[in-house]
Amino acid sequence: LLTVTVFLSTLTPKFYFALTVTSSFISGLIFVFEWWHFRKYGTSFIEQVSVSHLRPLIGGAESSPPAPAAFSAGDSEASRQNMPECKVWRNPLNLFRGAEYSRYMWVTGKEPLTYYDMNLSAQDHQTFFTCDTDSLRPSDTVMQKAWRERNPQARIKAAHQALELNNDCATAYVLLAEEEATTIVDAEKYFKQALKAGEMIYRKSQNCHSQSPQHEAQLRRDTNVLVYVKRRLAMCARKLGRIREAVKMMRDLMKEFPLLSMLNIHENLLEALLELQAYADVQAVLAKYDDISLPKSAAICYTAALLKARAVSERFSPETASKRGLSTAEINAVEAIHRAVEFNPHVPKYLLEMKSLVLPPEHILKRGDSEAVAYAFFHLQHWKRIEGALNLLHCTWEGTFRMIPYPLEKGHLFYPYPSCTESADRELLPTFHEVSVYPQKELPFFIHFTAGLCSFSAMLALLTHQFPELMVIFAKAVSIVS
């Protein structure tokens, strides 16, 4: 102690200033390197080294989920080239305007749909429910104007005018079912009338579609109307508890119009089959539609993960798995969760109820927060029904999230994440909803630590430069006390 005291008494203020400047410089270099490593790889270098190399030396072990098998480079590259950025899709499970969205607004006073979302729907209606021959029929001419109306009451009034001109105007019944009906029962009544009128018009169009290009366009329009009506009737049956009837209607629709797979009717079927707990049928649907060459969806990826988790979730324990390692079935479940989380990392927080849900929009952005809201809104109950599934998701999703390629320009299983995702989601989701941003990775502890260390040592260097004698006394006092 006497030797240390003598040594400290001989040190000058310049030594302490040089020491603090050097430590500040070194900690700054460490911070810059940590930040660069995190931006490039998405992990802290110090944390990675400590977990991978130091922890095993002191007897610790951590079971990290294995990396899933990569798909062929050709398929992956083709999917990346063919996938347009920020393409907005119609939500296969969108709710009914009058019976669900409007009722929410009446109760809460909040508008669940954005203008951008409703404008996209208006464009959809004009594209699918109108054609060049509408000018030949007064009722269709009125409906052409109705789809362009911004005011809901004006659209409803126009639909009634169309029915006065033609009692078999299917698109008028569709509009009334969507917007005037305040219950699902009323909506179903309107859709049944639309189905009767739509089938009659569809048969007429089939008989004369080869006569001219105008007749072909009319057949396409009448086909779109018929498919839309049948799908919404199946959704009405699902919402009213007639699940088996809904499943039959969806299967018949997919069999009758196999070329309309882009409408994603299979996602309605998956949700209904999960409600029936017909897991073998769900697997059969997934086997047909879960293909790397097709655009993925959260419904497909997370349903596949749910089925894999179902096989092991009841007996899964993180403590046991860390001791004995993962079994083959558990590895398959973890890989499926990894794949789902990479496709859409927003979903787990909704399924684990770490973030509140809102009504799903009428359009969704694949891999975005809007798709996560739409998926979790309908599928949360299916995850809760399988014992231990949410626990397995909770134990694994954060680890798989850290394995997601970073930054955005990279991709592992899927095409790179588009940079315009956040802006598109903000236009689709209501203003009162906090939009998730991908990939919002939290800064590791060691980045905070090195930043604090750098700032603290820089402050000491500044104080030593300004008050050298005072800082020497302080340093000696701290050394003696310690």
Kindly summarize this structure in a few lines.
By secondary structure, the protein is mainly alpha-helical.
Describe this structure in words.
- This is Suppressor of tumorigenicity 7 protein-like.
- This protein has 23 helices and 2 strands.
- It folds into 4 domains: 37 residues, no CATH class; 189 residues, no CATH class; 154 residues, no CATH class; 38 residues, no CATH class.
- Strands 1-2 form a two-stranded antiparallel sheet.
- The radius of gyration is 30 Å and the shape is elongated.
- The protein has 482 residues and is mainly alpha-helical.
- About 5% of the residues have low confidence.
- Helix/strand structural class: mainly alpha
**Main beta sheet strand tally, sense and closure:** 2 strands, antiparallel
Cα(first) to Cα(last) distance is 11 Å
Q: Beta-sheet strand percentage?
A: under 5%
Count of strand segments: 2
Q: Kindly state the mean pLDDT as a whole number? A: 80
| Spatial extent as radius of gyration | 30 Å
Q: SSE order, as H and E?
A: HHHHEHHHHHHHHHHHHHHEHHHHH
Largest sheet strand order: 1-2
Q: State the share of residues found in helices, binned by percent.
A: 55-70%
Please mark out the parts with pLDDT under 50 across 5 or more consecutive residues, or reply none: 60-84
Total number of helices: 23
Number of domains: 4
Estimate the global geometry from the Cα principal axes.
elongated
